[in-house]
Write a structure and sequence with these properties.
The complex is a heterodimer of chains A (84) and B (226). By secondary structure, chain A is α+β, with helices and mostly antiparallel strands. Chain A has one domain: Phosphoribosylformylglycinamidine synthase subunit PurS (Mth169, Chain: A). Chain A contains two helices and three strands, in the order E-H-E-H-E. A three-stranded antiparallel sheet of chain A has the order 2-1-3, covered by helices on one side. Chain A starts with a strand and ends with a strand. In chain B, the strands form two sheets. In chain B, strands 2-1-3-4-11-10-9-6-7 form a nine-stranded mixed sheet, with helices on both faces. A two-stranded antiparallel ribbon of chain B has the order 5-8. Chain B has five helices and eleven strands. Chain B has a single domain, classed as Rossmann fold (3-Layer(aba) Sandwich). Classes of the chains: A alpha+beta (84), B alpha/beta (226). Chains A and B meet through helix 1 of A and loops of B.
Chain lengths: 84, 226
């Protein structure tokens, strides 16, 4: 099978208070990693795209990240594209 | 005057808004399914003077509250409605979240700082009564309205905040305690032209003495007088 697997990682914008990350960080610290810090919670959205060049797939995935998957006021995103 | 309440999958304050507009305020109002509006729908929005985006959990709040609803036919049709007509748009709670996601209002609504869904009556300060929505109130007065949200923390870039203040776009702020951690305790804003309004509090839930002190009706009455 050809095509690509796209993974979009959406994270809270640095500096934005992340209450979910703070709650998880406290649990991580209490469970034995007291030095854990800067915990943040994001989302992983993955989808497949057929054919095209890697460049083209990255461009289309980047467009959908900007348009839909991340809100730039509160989030940032990064992409991973893997050939299948 | 004629109003429409847009119904999206997951809207759950649509009938409250419809009831208040039609029965309490006496404004002829239609409930419109979101797919019946816009480029491929049969109901032109331009016949309405007021469009309400009601509260609820459109599309299950998946991805982010309002993130998917902003691509619904009715929401996509709002830009054209605002460009060609002179009507007003009011988004309440989820409606406010949709308006920010659609870029029709600045900023975003993030998770409450308390990590809790907040459902309570709050006191709000009227910051600007010189808009169609707030015209029946006085700047500086305090009113009581319920809030009920999980993602209600208003966030805006520093330059966006300066612009909001410069244009006097902040309509309501939380008086006293800031329940969700909103920047500058902002609870409601409008666009620079005073035609698009977004509120986290629910005025439609406090329009009759059975349900509160009626401050929500005092607020909404401004729209009827416009």
């Amino acid at each position: 099978m050809s095509g690509y697997l796209v993974k979009v990682l959406v994270e809270p914008r640095p500096g934005l208070l992340d209450p979910e990350g703070q709650a998880i960080e406290r649990a991580i610290q209490e469970l034995g990693l007291p030095e854990a810090h800067e915990t943040s919670v994001g989302k992983l959205i993955s989808f497949k795209l057929p054919g095209g060049s890697l460049e083209e797939v990255r461009e289309r995935a980047n467009w959908i990240g900007q348009k839909l998957l991340a809100n730039p006021v509160i989030e940032r995103f990064s992409l991973e594209v893997e050939a299948l | 005057m004629r109003a429409a309440v847009i119904v999206l999958p997951g809207s759950n304050c649509d009938h409250d808004a419809f009831y208040v507009l039609s029965q309490v305020l006496g404004v002829p109002t239609d409930l419109l399914w979101h797919e019946d509006v816009g480029a491929h729908g049969h109901t032109p929005l331009l016949q309405y003077d007021l469009i309400i985006l009601p509260g609820g959990f459109s599309y299950g709040d998946y991805l982010r509250a309002g993130a998917i609803a902003r691509f619904s036919p009715a929401i996509l049709a709002l830009s054209d409605y605002l460009a060609r007509g002179c009507g007003l748009v009011l988004g309440i709670c989820n409606g406010f979240q949709i308006l920010t996601e659609a870029g029709l209002l600045p900023g975003a609504l993030a998770r409450n700082i308390t990590r809790q869904f907040i459902c309570q009556t709050v006191r709000l300060r009227v910051e600007n009564a010189d808009t169609p929505l707030t015209s029946a109130l006085q700047t500086g007065e305090e009113i009581e309205l319920p809030i009920a949200h999980d993602q209600g923390r208003y966030v805006v870039a520093p330059n966006g905040l300066a612009e909001l203040k410069r244009n006097r776009q902040v309509l309501l702020t939380y008086a006293g305690e800031n329940p969700n951690g909103s920047e500058e305790a902002i609870a409601g804003i409008c666009d620079p032209k005073r035609r698009v309004f977004g509120l986290m509090p629910h005025p439609e839930r406090n329009t009759e003495l059975l349900l509160g002190n009626g401050d929500g009706l005092r607020l909404l009455r401004g729209l009827k007088q416009t």
